[in-house]
Predict the 3D structure of the following.
Amino acid sequence: MTNGHATLVTKQFGARADAYVESSVHAQGADLEQAAALLTGHNAARVLDLGCGGGHVSFRAAPLVGEVVAYDLSTDMLAAVARTAAQRGLANIETRQGRAEVLPFADAHFDFVLSRYSAHHWHGFSQALAEARRVLRPGGTALFMDTVSPGPALIDTYLQAVELIRDPSHIRDYSTAEWLNALAAAGFALKEVTARRVRLDFSSWVTRMATPAPQVATIRALQVQMADDVVRHFAIEADGSFTIDTVAIEVARDS
């Protein structure tokens, strides 16, 4: 991640830290339950929450394991996570600041690496995946959860456009095929792919990021003007609310 993009990410999310900690969309979901099921029975495990954001993976994981490291680029986000962890009595959550592409941990340090709604902000996608594998112990498991591109060019262009207009730190929602290719190139062995659809309330979506009014108006104008294929795929509603594609990919480090 270049200094310019790192600055943009911290600017975008630092001021919105509490909004993400309190976000109901991020605080629940079948993918969080999948992560919890993965960790159940591993009471002594070390877990890395890579790109922790509002800390929801860390909060869900902490009662199940021995240690959680909540890792993020934004110091403001990490401060909000630490405050919430203290309020909830989750003493086994440690916060660490840094880039996904350069992890300050020893080789094979973690039993699990979890990452949720973070990768679309990584400047060095492949490099970050390689780092995730490096810090995962042989036999360990990683679970990556994110919004994904449906693939077809028209629908992909719309998705990347509205994401960037809402949040200029957005880089790319990768397709599932791009994810699988990148994970294989990083040396992970595929275990499971779970596709889901998630509805987003438009007002909450733009308010959470404090998207300026002109950008909000631009997104709404695009929604009104887009081809029927786009409207149908994203189930765009009269108030702008819509539905996105997500994926949870479980992989292992075999050696």
User: Anything to note?
Assistant: Residues 153-166 form the longest helix (14 residues). The chain has a mean pLDDT of 92. The two ends are 28 Å apart (CA to CA).
